[in-house]
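We modelled the chain as a single entity of 263 amino acids. Its sequence is:
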Amino acid sequence: MKEAIIEVKDLVVRYGSRTVLDGINLDIYKGESIAILGKSGCGKSTLLRHMIGLSNPTSGQILIRGRDITAMKEEDKVEILKKVGMLFQSAALFNSMSVGDNVALPLREHTSLEESTMRIMINMKLDSVGLSGFYDYKPSQLSGGMKKRAGLARALAMDPEILFCDEPSAGLDPVVAAGIDNLVLKVKKAFKMTIIVVTHELPSVDIIADRVAMMHEGKILAVGTKQELMKSNHPVITQFFNREPDDEAVDRDKVLSTLISEV
């Protein structure tokens, strides 16, 4: 039997009268990498935010290693989340700090390591993401891809069991994006982590994901390998994987064409 390291059970999130997540159920297994797919506004970023403990749901549970983070005190949640790393879409580096100091933030917050020991550990993390020698650089001196690598080094600082990645290759050219995706896969294997990736990039799915969870309008439509989902007859899933425009987009194009022709 596979061991579920994260269990999302009947998760509902409402903001006023609007339901953003509508009864999400998802098991994520130890050691796997899973991509959460869906077009903008489907709820995947909201699901991610709740799985990393940044928000509390309207109802439902999120269990990490069998413990419900939605029902525990904040100090207990912090202890659980020490073993969870997060790579943000923008890398979320502090421009006033060096790359090394950015990576050191979790260690300074949650450990009492001596600075000399911490520096050795930080340099090891930087080396693992291909940024050896960049400790004293400022984020403004890095390219977009290098910033993502620095963000990944910080996410790895506490040797997490689980790594969340929010659009890790977004905004990068295809070659650099593929490099980041392959790096995520490399660190997953090296550190034997479970990885959850929120993305809409199909090339990233090809590189990273063992399984895919397809979301639409706050629900999970299907979970399986990419090959399994590509065989689905569900129109939303077919549309997404074939990159077909939806009816709303087609209508907007028609309206735009009409306006142009009338000018």
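As a brief sanity check on the tokenised model: The first strand starts at residue 4 and ends at 15. Confidence is low (pLDDT under 50) at residues 247-263.
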